[in-house]
Design goal:
This protein is mainly alpha-helical and about 180 residues long. Helix content is about 65%, strand content about 5%. The chain binds zinc ion.
């Protein structure tokens, strides 16, 4: 923990700015333990021995300075937390994407009786990067209804299924451009 505090503060006394090895560094409690301060990183700060014992240029009793330091530490903790939140959010987005593909796959299966293969799923994933989910859903519906013909041999039915899936991107594109033109 001591080492973590020193590392975070770049081995620099946060009160006077002097660095190891010019000074002996200690870990100081911003809110003293006697006043309910704990050992969280947020409450710990790197101080040289002089500053920690009240002999430094900035006295530890200077409340304003201490509050400023603590605000900076809280900022740092916020930034780290926000970064973690962003990482989690991106992971969540990827999960949402999979769920959306699953949904469109089941929609297509419902209308056509045919299951998307891995290539089809990848196509849907590409459309979802470019177009909103609702648009891809309605385009998938239109493509199946309009272009999928199952009243023929297996070979041609499969061809027409693949063709219909291939039309989804174009339908999305046309709908988007119509909207922009309107
Ligand atoms: Zn110092």
């Amino acid at each position: 923990m001591r080492f973590e505090v020193f590392k975070r503060d770049k081995f620099t006394c946060q009160y006077c700015g002097r660095m190891s090895p010019d000074v002996i560094l200690e870990v100081d409690h911003i809110t003293p333990v006697s006043k309910g301060g704990n050992n969280d990183m947020i409450n710990l700060i790197t101080s040289c021995r002089d500053c920690n014992r009240g002999k430094g240029k900035t006295r530890l009793s200077d409340d304003q300075e201490i509050k400023k330091q603590q605000a900076q530490l809280l900022d740092l903790a916020d930034k780290k937390e926000q970064l973690q939140m962003m990482v989690d959010w991106k992971k969540e987005l990827l999960n949402i994407r999979e769920t959306q593909i699953d949904y469109i796959e089941s929609l297509i299966l419902q209308i056509s009786g045919y299951q998307l293969n891995e290539n089809g799923r990848q196509d849907i994933a590409k459309y979802l990067i470019k177009y909103p989910f609702e648009l891809v859903c309605s385009a998938a519906e239109i493509a199946i209804v309009k272009y999928f013909n199952k009243n023929q041999s297996d070979y041609w039915t499969e061809r027409s299924f693949a063709d219909a899936i291939g039309k989804i991107g174009g339908i999305c594109y046309n709908k988007t451009n119509k909207r922009e033109g309107a």
